């Protein structure tokens, strides 16, 4: 009986120590592997948030030295290839060697909020190398992510936009 008590206490202590030391330091991460110091040390981030009685919008832009969203082999792809989903459906992701923002806008909901200039230098000589979207109805939730490559400065701009809108809203997003 005493031996069982000691054994249970030791087991509990070992399990507690295991969970304490092997927790993730900063949360669950995406499966995408790190692309070097550019991920952490060379970012410029800008975030805007708006909201009203009907919903909210988060618009975040960052600039990096290397691509973060596009697959490593994006240069070898055609201009923009569908990776998953359906461009006419409720979600989709595409990547490629680059497509003009105006052409991406013509793809419908995927290109709804595509930026047309570099977030770093403002140049218009950019190409979209990654785009994804998600739309949920009836909650009117939208999420868009874009990555652009700038020919002028060689940097990569990422734009993340997320918005929610209540179904009872009668006013537009503007």
Concise synopsis of the structure shown:
With 174 residues, the chain is α+β, with helices and mostly antiparallel strands. It has helices at 2-21, 38-41, 101-105, and strands at 44-51, 55-64, 81-85, 91-99, 126-136, 141-150, 156-165.
- For the CA atoms, what is the radius of gyration? 22 Å
| Major pleated sheet | 7 strands, antiparallel
The assigned structural class equals alpha+beta
Question: How big a fraction of the residues is strand?
Answer: 35-45%
The total of beta strands comes to 7
**Distance separating the two termini:** 73 Å
The topology string of helices and strands comes to: HHEEEEHEEE
How many helices? The count is: 3
Using the alpha-carbon principal axes, give the shape: elongated
How much helix, percentage-wise, in residues? Answer: 10-25%
What's the average pLDDT?
Answer: 78
Give the neighbour order of strands across the main sheet.
1-2-7-6-5-4-3
């Amino acid at each position: 009986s005493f031996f069982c008590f000691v054994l249970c206490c030791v087991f509990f202590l070992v399990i507690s120590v295991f969970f304490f030391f092997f927790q993730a330091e900063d949360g669950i991460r995406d499966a995408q592997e790190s692309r070097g110091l550019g991920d952490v040390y060379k970012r410029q981030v800008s975030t805007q948030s708006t909201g009203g009685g009907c919903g909210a919008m988060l618009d975040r832009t960052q600039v990096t030295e290397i691509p973060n969203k596009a697959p490593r082999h994006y240069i070898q792809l055609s201009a923009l290839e569908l990776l998953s989903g359906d461009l006419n459906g409720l979600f989709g992701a595409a990547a490629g060697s680059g497509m003009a923002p105006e052409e991406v806008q013509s793809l419908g909901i995927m290109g709804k909020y595509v930026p047309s200039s570099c977030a770093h230098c403002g140049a218009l000589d950019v190409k979209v190398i990654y785009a994804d979207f998600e739309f949920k109805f009836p909650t009117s939730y939208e999420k868009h992510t874009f990555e652009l490559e700038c020919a002028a400065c060689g940097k990569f701009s990422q734009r993340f936009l997320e918005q929610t809108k209540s179904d009872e809203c009668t006013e537009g997003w503007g």
